[in-house]
Amino acid sequence: MTYKIGIVGLGVMGHNLALNMERNGFPVAGFDLDASKTKAFLEGSGARKNIIGVESPALLMEILEKPRRILLMVPAGAAVDSAIAHLKPHLEPGDILMDGGNSFFMDTERRNKALEAEGFNFIGTGVSGGEEGALWGPAIMPGGQLEAWEATAPIFRAISAKAEDGLPCVDYMGPRGAGHYVKMVHNGIEYGDMQLIAEIYDLLHRGAGIPNGELAEIFTEWNEQELRSYLIEITAKILRQVDEHSSEALVEFILDEAAQKGTGKWTSQNALDVGAPIPTINAAVESRILSSLKAERVIASRILKGYTLPFTGDCDRLIELARKALYASKITSYAQGFGLLKLASKEYSYNLNYAGIARIWRAGCIIRAGLLTDITSAFERNPELPNLLLDDAFRDIVLDHQAAWREVLQTGIGLGIPMLATSASLAFFDAYRSERLPANLTQAQRDYFGAHTYRRTDRDGVFHTEWLS
Prior knowledge:
Blueprint: E1 5-8, H1 12-23, E2 28-31, H2 35-43, E3 51-53, H3 57-63, E4 69-72, H4 78-87, E5 96-99, H5 105-117, E6 121-128, H6 130-136, E7 139-144, H7 146-159, H8 178-207, H9 212-222, H10 230-240, H11 263-274, H12 279-291, H13 294-303, H14 315-348, H15 354-360, H16 371-381, H17 392-415, H18 420-432, H19 439-450
Parallel strand pairs: 1-2, 1-4, 2-3, 4-5, 5-6
Antiparallel strand pairs: 6-7
């Protein structure tokens, strides 16, 4: 018998995807350099299923349907190159290698071009949704040769998450590294979302003294309104979780150091490369870095005394203001993310479909939210929309919410609660809507110390001034 697809790397994500594929009618052949992983999988959750394990790349190729489809589920970086090197001698022209890890898109660009030159196809595909998504339906973002996508599309469509309208949360992103680029930006937006939620939690909990149990109810209610999303949903569940060693919320005992795997940082770095302003995502990355300075922060907390005034206002009113501020910040963060996608699409010739991207993010992935249906509609109305904030529907929401947005930040500043991402969102909104910014002074300074020249508002041309010393 021949098998429809091979999976190399049978860790949790790899074997969950194998189970998903088999359940949807695609026999799977698995291989792992660690034979014990293959054995444990086939004797455990993979037992009595149309899944086979093999002991070598050569045996894998013998039992795969042609053109062979091989999904690599190995750690990003050198492990991907090593896996390709092991498999390549056994490939035939037209075979398809797929990288389902969180690889840096420029690595995918390199691998795609090198393998294509040798007659092979290479798909770099973002897979979002974690372990549960891999098993029951992730959002999938493949990029590479179009013919390779067409040869793998039936499998990806079958195993992907399905949105409320039944559409699969997968689509062809574009050539070469487009799929991994879109996944990188997805993760950047995810960083922003998580930080915005954390700041509102901090304002309401540490600032206004609202207990975790009550906050859980607030987030549950928010999840039934315009903020409906996976991250809001799990925030409510987290705040409800009681520590088994005490009667307090577990979240109170978790060390306040947020780790990161690098995709958010890549988003910030690449945004600088293509010239895209994404201050909310940048603030989220910086906030994680700040959180890692735990020992320093403990010392600083004893030396740098700031405001510790208790909140004396109306808590119910603050909660409603916070809801509006969070939603306005979230819209602005997504606007920045899609703005980055637009610039990158031009820079790398990806020809991205923004409505299509928003559509496949509606289910399966970590940033899935009701908001994405509205974003899909905005780009369907105007595929050339320069920025989400210029869409009539989003414009009206943000303008309606901006008074609450400003008051929430003023309250946070007064209480000494750091709100880097929320502040960055509002600052982006204010800068983007400003017909005139103080860059005129910046340009004058550049001309003063470096003769960099400037342009004028009242006539054409490039000018330099011999400034007064």
